Amino acid sequence: MDEAKKDQNDLIIGRNAVFEAIKSGREVDRLFVQRGEQNPAVKRLISMAREKGAVIKEVDSKKLDFMCGGGVHQGVALSAAAHEYSTVEDILNKAAEKNEKPFIIICDGVEDTHNLGAVIRTADAAGAHGVIIPKRRSASLNFTVGKTSAGALEYVPVARVANLASTIDELKEKNIWIYGADMYGSDYKSTDYSGGVALIIGSEGHGMSRLVREKCDFIVSLPMKGKINSLNASVAAGILMYEVASHR
Questions:
Q1: CA 20 to 30 Å from 238, out of 40, 45, 65, 97?
Q2: End-to-end alpha-carbon separation of the chain, Å?
């Protein structure tokens, strides 16, 4: 997704405002910096943001102007999280506390904030224990996601990881089966989901990444009887989540 299309209300702009936001301990997602910016104050903000785990994105001046709605950004804009991120361990602990086999949703490159919010909302309704997203190539927990989740973000832990493939390997070691959604898979109705489940939903345009797909134990597919060969990511996720829930 083009970063310039982000909801402008999600951004904190200006050097002082960005400094205070980072200093306050807020969860930070991305620091957008005007390309070629050499100001020492901006370099300090880059260092602070990196220490907090933020992704640093260089953008040209016109793009940054547009992202900030014409506001005075002084070369920097910060995308902060609307909710604190959890850990994969938190998600597994939630399942253990309920004495249930883990049911986890993994979003592999879901970049549309509305889709991610909808996935989180359905995850809550279907009884999933949490959602995992990658640090890069993904929507983050901004205010649009929070609003679209209709409050579910308060109840569904979302973990952000640096390496999805490694995380999947760790889940496998805990006897969790990996199910990937793809148009070239087995009928989703003919698959058993009774054990520990991690359901992977790929990106809106490209599906799962090659490495993630190769790590799946099962590839499941929804039947497509019309002229369009794919569904919106959050719609497909919703159908599959409820199918998993029916086996539990």
A1: 97
A2: 35
The answer to whether the CB of 3 falls within 8 A of the CB of 57 is: yes
Alpha-helix residue ranges (DSSP H) falling in the chain: 15-23, 40-51, 61-67, 88-97, 113-126, 143-148, 164-173, 210-214, 233-246
Sign of CA dihedral 119, 127, 173, 191: negative
Specify the 3-state DSSP secondary structure of 224.
coil
Q: DSSP states of 120-141 as a string?
A: HHHHHHHT--EEEEESSSS--S
CA distances (Å), origin 244, targets 3, 61, 187: 33, 47, 13
Query: Which pLDDT score is estimated for 6?
Result: 43
> What is the spatial distance between Cα 31 and Cα 54, in angstroms, rounded to a whole number?
7
List, for residues 104-163, the tens digit of each pLDDT value: 999 998 989 899 999 999 999 999 999 999 988 888 887 788 878 888 888 999 999 999
Angstrom distance (rounded) from CA 201 to CA 208: 7
Q: Tell me: the pLDDT tens digits for 188-225?
A: 999 999 999 999 999 877 889 999 999 999 999 998 77
Facing residues of 78 across strands? 12, 31
